[in-house]
Write a structure and sequence with these properties.
By secondary structure, this protein is an alpha/beta fold. The protein contains 8 helices and 17 strands. Strands 1, 2, 3, 4, 5, 6 and 17 form a 7-stranded mixed sheet that branches. Strand 9 (161-165), helix 4 (169-180) and strand 10 form a beta-alpha-beta unit. Helix 1 (16-27) packs parallel to helix 8. It is elongated. The model has no long low-confidence stretch (mean pLDDT 96). The protein binds flavin-adenine dinucleotide. Flavin-adenine dinucleotide (FAD) binds at residues 12-18, 35-38, 42-43, 47, 51, 53-55, 99-100, 127-129, 131-132, 170, 293-294, 305-307.
Length: 324
């Protein structure tokens, strides 16, 4: 492993907020390297292909570069185009498909080991998001290839028997889209109603489809086993055995907080497990390690998003520049 490259800052994660940090570092004349384990804006790339952002495009802009969209709310494809153009026009120093595995501190310098080589730096910004770890159903059969936690495209499910697990935005979008492409859709919902955070303009659509019987929904129910051709569901009326080709588990995602803990970052004791950091500088309890983007919220992944965490980049880089 080579270990001769040294930077003012290593940024872990090439999502929108990691990119914003890279741009800000560049504006301020600091040397930096962005490390991304997948493709550019890897999380956005893995969002459903037809998804539309709830934010208007100017609220997704980073580094002051305008995001022009044909619609009030941009699509995933437009966002991929935008962030790619931003990375190109800003000539961001980014290594893709290079995952950070480990960080060690030697004297005052961090050694960052990746799947390809190692680097030295005095400052690390962690912008690793929350989309890498799905909440598992933890039932027999979840490992079957017919089960996905990353729903992509409805056409694939045409004329198939699809079970959608969950009742929030992702689940509702997957249920409606696949039903509209001819799938026979069943929803399994742990709660007694559709999720409260479902977009207000989508809620009547799903509620009406359920009421008219086009989409079958089991409320207060959960999956207990997935088999090759069927699924067992625990419902208030007892166990139901339904025919099934595919399972879309839209049960949400969680940040990899164990990665933060390994670096010595303290987490709150409650269920939020909020990382400890200074709200003004975003420096954690570990000197020289900063947090940016949605990972700052711990398990509260719905509180921070691109719109309201773009500003983290400015605060962090200002602090690093000042110290330097
Ligand atoms: C369906 C959907 C719709 C959304 N709509 C909106 C919206 O309209 N408006 C809005 O503001 N937000 C929206 N969000 C939320 C928003 O996309 C996220 O909050 C945003 O992506 C956070 O940016 P980030 O850079 O913090 O994290 P991410 O975009 O998740 O980026 C983190 C990156 O870190 C990489 N990574 C992780 N671990 C490592 C490692 N060890 N080494 C190297 N790389 C690593 C990941 O591959 C990933 O690319 C939506 C989310 C979803 C799921």
């Amino acid at each position: 492993m080579q270990s001769n490259q040294s930077y003012d800052i290593i940024i872990i994660g090439g999502g929108p907020i990691g990119l914003a940090c890279g741009m800000e570092a560049k504006f301020k004349g600091l040397s930096y390297l962005l490390l991304e384990k997948g493709c550019l804006v890897n999380s956005l790339y893995h969002y459903p292909q037809n998804m539309t952002f709830f934010s208007t495009s100017e609220r997704l802009e980073i580094g002051g570069i305008p995001f022009v969209s044909n619609n009030a709310k941009p699509t995933r494809n437009e966002a991929l185009e935008y962030y790619r153009r931003v990375a190109v026009s800003s000539q961001l120093n980014i290594h893709l498909f290079e995952e950070v595995l480990q960080v060690n501190k030697i004297d005052n310098v961090y050694k960052v080991n990746t799947t390809k080589r190692s680097y030295h730096t005095k400052n690390i910004i962690i912008a690793t998001g929350f989309y890498g770890l799905p909440y598992l159903l933890n039932v027999p059969g979840e490992e079957l290839p017919k089960v996905t936690h990353y729903y992509q495209d409805p056409h694939f499910y045409a004329f198939q028997k699809v079970l959608v697990v969950g009742a929030n935005n992702s689940a509702v979008d997957a249920a409606l889209e696949t039903w509209r492409k001819g799938a026979k859709v069943t929803m399994v919902i742990r709660e007694s109603e559709i999720g409260k955070r479902v977009k207000y303009w989508v809620r009547p659509d799903i509620e009406n489809r359920i009421e008219e019987g086009s989409i079958k929904a089991y409320f207060n129910s959960s999956v207990i086993e997935i088999k090759q051709d069927e699924v067992l569901i625990q419902t208030p009326e007892g166990i139901k055995n339904i025919e099934n080709d595919w399972v879309v588990a839209a049960t949400g995602y969680q940040p990899d907080l164990s990665f933060l803990e390994k670096l010595g970052i303290e987490l709150s004791d409650d269920e939020v497990r909020k990382p400890t950091y200074n709200e003004h500088t975003h420096e954690t309890n570990v000197r020289g390690i900063y947090l940016a983007g949605v990972v700052c919220g711990g398990m509260n992944t719905h509180k921070l998003f691109i719109e309201n965490s773009r500003e983290h980049a400015v605060k962090i880089i200002e602090n690093i520049k000042y110290r330097k």
